[in-house]
């Protein structure tokens, strides 16, 4: 996990060296103070004290100045690692793990865990070093003094183990619930209009409070733990001070140690106690890190898609073949043994009732999922052998909701293009799809701002923008997943015409319920419950394929109901 987190080792080494120096300087504090308090007027004692404070100030500043950047660089690197992983992980992972829930692994978990981890890496060994040298110095005064420091060690270890386990559990709970609350809010904020349409604000307020209350419960558990830590920690600290005082005073009275050694020992026992607490804190922070990173570790272990550049790049043509392809989402069968051919440069419609496997067919072609049986070939080559980047670069995908990120119209149209394009190129593409007529009415033109999901545009405008984006991309195969389903009849007709006029020679696959489209396409695939029931053009299927006739009847009645 640490290896995968890409920690900034050079920063950590520098901060470690600085912290080590800080501890080394701190080791001289008790003897310097003891020298001053013994009433000595020796110039050397004063000079040592002055040197100590100058050095102390320098190393303290350097320690603070270097440790923070090391933490922030680590947090930034880890955020990048997780985001990269989220982008490359296989889609199956997201079927079981809500991606919105994972957002907080980047915004929260990673930042805190990497900060703790850097703190541990930088501070743990120097603290141990400090303790060893301090104990050796004390033992040189008197062995009983050293033993007095160790008397409570078993209690301290028991305390650390017990609290550490508790810490792990509570932190895991907190971060899981932060994820839950983030996911809840992200989903609701995206669909505010749905909430308003159903005037469901009151219920959503309650749902939000419930998610927030879960986090509150987890935080209260942390609070309880902190109370125990403070209480037990203070008790142990007090017991330690009493033991030290008793041992010191007895030995001083006996004349076994000098007053100077007693002062130095007393100061050492204080700083040693802090060092012990720090070691316990480091241990607890490690347990906290473990608790925080459970979800991140699971994500980082998830299987990734193939390297986009690895595989064959010699795609010859765009004919697509499904040969006895089967696919299930977990136990749920989506496609069973389907075989068909999609000819190059032609338009194929995929139709079927809800849940018949249309979108799954497109997903297999894009290799969002791999089939469990059979083969998908593109240009005669199994898709699984093709470089993922090359394959996806050949395929354009226009989805139901016209997916658009926020930004300017220019950014939306050029999204995903790797080469620089001029405004003139964009306008040329927009003329082709008819989006230019819309653009001209907007004063800011290509600088017009687009809301997330393109909600600041009408459905037809959004689809025209996406078609312009696809035209610019220039892929040879274009998949359309119900491109007109969200549009009224006039806009649907306009988008349909644009598809045929803009991409006349491309290999087009259109998932649709739109009857008028079926008569225009070259081939229709009829799916029913994941099985291919028919394949042919409108004339070939009409009156001959039962499933096709049933679908026509359903689409007809839907159309009439809509009118
Ligand atoms: N991510 C998923 N996880 C689990 N099951 C899924 C997933 N996506 C689809 N399914 C299931 O697989 C089957 C085929 O779904 P698919 O989305 O391919 O159908 P569709 O024909 O495109 O449906 P629609 O017309 O409603 O969009 C359905 O039973 C569906 O419930």
Automatic annotation (TrEMBL):
A GO MF label: ATP binding
Residue span, ABC transmembrane type-1 domain: 74-288
Topology relative to the membrane: Multi-pass membrane protein
Keyword Electron transport belongs to the record: no
InterPro entries (UniProt xref): AAA+_ATPase, ABC1_TM_dom, ABC1_TM_sf, ABC_transporter-like_ATP-bd, P-loop_NTPase, Type_1_exporter
Subcellular location: Cell membrane
Chief localization: membrane
Transmembrane region(s): 7-25, 45-66, 116-135, 141-162, 225-251, 263-283
Protein name: ABC transporter ATP-binding protein/permease
UniProt lineage: Bacteria, Bacillati, Bacillota, Clostridia, Lachnospirales
